[in-house]
Amino acid sequence: MIHVIAFYLFAAIVVCSGALTILSRNPVHSVLWLILAFFNAAGLMVLLGAEFIAMLLVIVYVGAVAVLFLFVVMMLDIDFAELRAGFVDYLPFGLLIALVLLAEIVLGIGLWSAGPIELAQRAAPVNPEMSNIQAIGALLYTRYIFLFEAAGIVLLVAMIGAIVLTHRARGGVRPQNIAKQNRRRPEDAVRNVNQPVGQGVEL
Amino acid sequence: MTAFFQNLGVPFEGAWFLSTIIGILLIALPVMLAVAMIIYADRKIWAAMALRRGPNVVGPFGLLQSFADGLKVFLQETIIPSAANKTLFIIAPIITFTVALMAWAVVPFQVGVVLANINVGLLYILAISSLGVYGIVLAGWASNSKYPFYSAIRASAQMISYEVSIGFILICVVLWAGSFNLTTIVESQKGYYGFLNGNGFNPLLFPMAIMFLISAMAETARAPFDLTEAESELVAGYQTEYSSMAFALYWLGEYANVILMCALNAILFWGGYLPPVDWAPLYWVPGILWLFAKILFFFFVFSWVKATVPRYRYDQLMRLGWKIFLPTSLLFVFLVSGFLMLTRYGGAQ
């Protein structure tokens, strides 16, 4: 009973906040609705028994990705009229993508229940006594190890690429050298001068 | 407790629901009381180190000071700036406060005395603490004012930076314990050298314990990392526009987070509810008292640091997080996993 209530609660909030992500006028509100959608999707994962994925969803998407979104969106100078002008232009393309995604989901479900092909076997749950984390680890670090490492390399390349593209040497900055600062002692910085009255100090 | 309600004739789901609600209240109310008392303790310790008296008027030794403050704040008018984004302005402190209490669900107070003994307890805490940043960012943005906004940007950059190294530090502990479950992590710390309880006595994990303590200060934006409310630069930081109960919610949430971080220090590195020395008579003391003693000790360390260490500069803070803690904690993930590979998991194959 509680499961059913929880499922419909989470699912309804995911759908509503997904719609509001698109519909709300203020981009910051959009990001916040998106966060709510992520969070409730994590709730759905917990109901499925995939608690590891749920926690990762919250840590990665809510904790890191959405914070960066929010960062960028908060600092934008938003022109609402201009923002809404593109809506109609992009609508057909958006609908096309939505259709493709829908078709993929339908195909996926179809393949799952299509019967005796190898995919169904592969997607079958592993030993239920194993905890989530162990089950994922056992697959990820044996069967899919090369794919996993390739994904890591792709991310590394993306990160280096982003840094290379945005990094530029700026003139006129004064970098901090912390080691030098820490090495500095009062004797290096302070000088006692016994100055005769009426004359300036030469520093 | 579920069984107790079932014996009274309540069906299982109702019994589970009732017992969970009671469990939440049993944790949340004492935490709130502890927050009130710990604010008093913080002020007293801080005053003692500055050779002052601290709060000493309300009640015996000033013990009721926090409650008097709470009452005062409660009776004040809630001011919402006219340029603020009202809904988010009100939601932001609620998020901070709720998130500060949510994480307590997985903290084990004794063997089996925990609200939710889940497999991914530590990940849950990481997830919840990563939510904490929203309360601050939203406050900064919704206030529609310069200083809160600066503060919010600072706070989110700071929290994200230190969460990375905290993540790696936690991985070390998890590798050693072989589990994300907090109770299992505590139990795995039994009997170092045959008589000590606590990962902190492990030479491979001791540096992690120190780094976790420092990262915890940065994560909760306590002094010396309290750049988010550096009063000489940012007035009162993200709380500048807040008054009355909204302000109090930030205040309470902040201290609840500090206590949580102290509890995590105790649980992950110093044996949680286990006595520090593995000696039979010490087990007669209830485990919850050991946990409280450790939390109080770490809170004392937090106050001590607050009273004695000057505030960091922002670039120093970022340097410490990204250039020192991140590589060091990554190195220790490598060392710990390598050590375990060579010893516990049967060497290189």
Give a nutshell description of this structure:
Chain A has 203 residues and is mostly helical.
Structural description of this entry:
The complex is a heterodimer of chains A (203) and B (349). Chain A has 203 residues and is mainly alpha-helical. Helix content of chain A is 73%, strand content 0%. Among the domains of chain A are: 1-76, Up-down Bundle (Four Helix Bundle (Hemerythrin (Met), subunit A)); 132-167. Chain A contains 10 helices and no strands. In chain A, helix 2 packs antiparallel against helix 3 (51-75). The longest helix of chain A is centred in the middle third of the chain and has 27 residues, at 87-113. The mean pLDDT of chain A is 81. Chain B has 349 residues and is mainly α. In chain B, helix 8 (206-219) packs antiparallel against helix 10 and helix 10 (244-269) crosses helix 11 (287-308). The N and C termini of chain B lie far apart (48 Å). Chain B is built from 12 helices and no strands. Classes of the chains: A mainly alpha (203), B mainly alpha (349). Chain A binds chain B through residues 1-2, 28, 32, 35, 42, 51-52, 55-56, 58-59, 62-64, 67, 70-71, 74, 131-133, 176, 178, and chain B through 13, 16-17, 88, 118-120, 123-124, 126-127, 130-131, 133-134, 137-138, 141, 149, 153, 156, 160, 163, 180, 315-316, 319. Chain B: Keywords: Cell membrane, Membrane, NAD, Oxidoreductase, Quinone, Translocase, Transmembrane, Transmembrane helix, Ubiquinone.
